[in-house]
Fold this protein.
Amino acid sequence: MLSAGLYLFIAYGFPGRSQFGILLLGVTCLFILYIWALRHASNLGATALIVAPVVLRLLFLLSIPELSDDFYRFIWDGHVMHRNQNPYLVIPADWAGQLSDGATGMLAHMNSPEYHTVYPPVCQFLFWLATAQSPDDVFSSMVWLRVLTVIAETGTMFLMVAILRYYKLPAGHMWFYGLNPLVVLELTGNLHPDAFMIFFSVLFYYLWVSRKTWWSAGALGLAIGAKLLPLLILPFLFKHLGVKRFISYALIVAIVFLGGFIPFLSLEVISGMMSSIHLYFRYFEFNASVYYLIRETLSAFYGYNPIALVGPMMAGICVVLLFIRVVFTMQKSTRLSDDVVWAFFLYLLCALVVHPWYVTILAAFTVISEKKFALVWTYLVFLSYHRYRTPGVDDSLLIIFLEYLLLAVAVWVELYRPHLFRRLFPSAV
């Protein structure tokens, strides 16, 4: 009930993301209640474990996100498809002056109207579905998109309970994800489509442990079709499948993923997406860790921001680190979920942009992993909202340094002093 009251305030009474102090206070209270709830999760049955998180998510049903304006782009892409246009070819700013009032409102609130959409085909289908009833009505489309998100989240939690039973772990571990304030606020509250990526990623894992190998390949293809990030899972399957089966498996994943692009595909689409990816790796930066250290070092030497050089370099460093991790685990019987957690963690450490909702995939696989340090990050990542306290102000390097310093401490404690970590999350034992 206390958590519900705080979520209702954030959903309907929060003054905006510029009020960083109020947000951090509310989130801190939510995490304290979250940790308290985890201590009592083992006393509940599977149905009650799922009902409570779903009820908290439904509190947001009619709320307009105050912490993110990305949902306007999601609704816009659906609107474009209902006008029989290809969302990958349309640059919203080019349509100014020739739109209905509802669509003009979307365009006015959109944060990147000059760029092509970057959302893969699974997301595009869901955006189309959410806007099917009223393509020009932002509020109605937003509500339907939230309904789809809650459905996906509910499915994710059911699958998590099934996987936990397979590993003979307490069903209450599902609350690591189900009640996590970051997950609730960023996925259901702010409508980020990572909820769909997580659903298909967890579905992949459920089918994998259920020994439905080829079906799991299809689920992984759909997960990548919702967001490219689950591609990182693929290399870690090599040791489980062997060369021939891995090639067949990767082929199924590729067919499912690329099949989603068939309704949209053209040379112009490929060019537009490559242009957007190029911009992402060379021009955008937010809440980064290793990249900021390299940037500040090279800036002192060159006298300007070397992002155009360092961005692609960080992608290369990430590939090398993932390769080392794959080789390191080839001869070890590590649980796949642990490999996935480390893969996503290494990627986020190398990323130029780490929005809070990027960490939710770590929270999902933490449920079925032996490593729980990512739960600490799901709280610390809210420090990145400090950037929005004043429009046009860059990240506070001191705040970002504090975030990653505390995260490093959490990783070290779990690796070398795990008994201390279990005191914070006793149900993780």
In short: The two ends are 27 Å apart (CA to CA). The CA atoms of residues 163 and 221 lie 20 Å apart.
